[in-house]
Amino acid sequence: MHTSRRLPRIGVVGYFISEEEAVGGRIRGIPRQAFSLFSYDMIQAIVKAGAVAIPLPVVDKAEIPHQLNAIDGLVFSGGEDVDPRLYGEELQSTAHRIDPVRDRYELELMELALDTDIPILCICRGMQLLNVYRGGSLYSDISLISEEVLNHWETSEPWRAVHPVMMKAGHFATDVLGGTTIEANSIHHQSVNVLGDGLEIVGHSTDNVVEAIALKDRSNLLAVQWHPEMIAKRNQEGLRPFRWLIEQASSRMKDL
Fold first, then answer.
1. Three-state secondary structure call for residue 82
2. Where are the domains of the chain?
3. Is-catalytic flag, 227?
4. 63 is an active site residue
């Protein structure tokens, strides 16, 4: 019987829909039924890049080690606003939806994942969550930065590049993402303000919005503000960070 080494397993977080919420739309189910929802674009990007995607639903903290034991790499995906009260601010009129249940779970997952040294890719909300976890803060809306910020909310063609990102020369993230200037899509209204402990900015747009960060002492964690999984629907360049994550996960598998 022919056997081969298994593909890396990449965990990915998603949305939590409580039983109190009206499901509406095309979501199937019955009243009082809770759901976990995951971006299909994200799942497809992970698969196209060469791994198995493992959806990670919200669980209690005691169950998180079991989730981490089942995966080789981890993606913190996009979604709702990070609750401003987690970094000492109040909800503003510009706030989008927040989900305290998801915030709590993902902060606990972040803590344990960093402790295990598992490779991590943070995307959009995921990057903001990393910054908040490390003690940083966010602009609750990028209009607070300047009245002259670029368009960072392009949803009609979410795969389309809308602005350049300048990457830090010589940094591993620059090699991963394809050069010192790359083109990115953009779907966010919050952004990094005060940088968290141990983090460094490795990419920014021309309006000085932070677009990529990394941990100073780790080369197996990368965070980007844009959505490469959506770019990947039309352009293979979007698979770059996922291929990097899978390479990191494969190396970790060999070491275990």
1. coil
2. 9-255
3. yes
4. no
